[in-house]
Amino acid sequence: MTSRTAEITPQQLIVWRMVQRAQVHITRSLEGELLSRHDLAPAAYDVLLQLSETTGRRLRMNDLAERVLLSRSGLTRLIDRLQRDGLVEREACASDARGLFAVLTKAGDQRLSEATPTYLRAIRGQFLDLLDEEELRQCADMLTKLFPQVSL
Question: pTM for the whole thing?
Fold first, then answer.
């Protein structure tokens, strides 16, 4: 063991690398499916999904950035593309002149509806169907332990 890994056992390092690889593998597969079939990146799908699940199909940009795990500038660029494609609109916030809402359009809702079966099939095939119910429960317990503050 080198000084760089002296505080991490070889087994710990293997587990960490496996987690990284699993996440990248699943995300690449999902991205390939969504882009090729629906011209929609996973982050764009997530934005549309988050908007569809809220009252009024709108969220303040800051709240949306937190939900989709993007920086404000990253979300702004993504919303620019989605707006150009007619999938979302920006709307001024009446109570805060500086605030903006991202609003799901009918076209965005339609694209989300078309992409959802592809999304679900991909996450099932790459992750969910590979684990039995007990393993899924254990996985959820472990992730909750790692990220107790995360609410979905």
Answer: 0.86
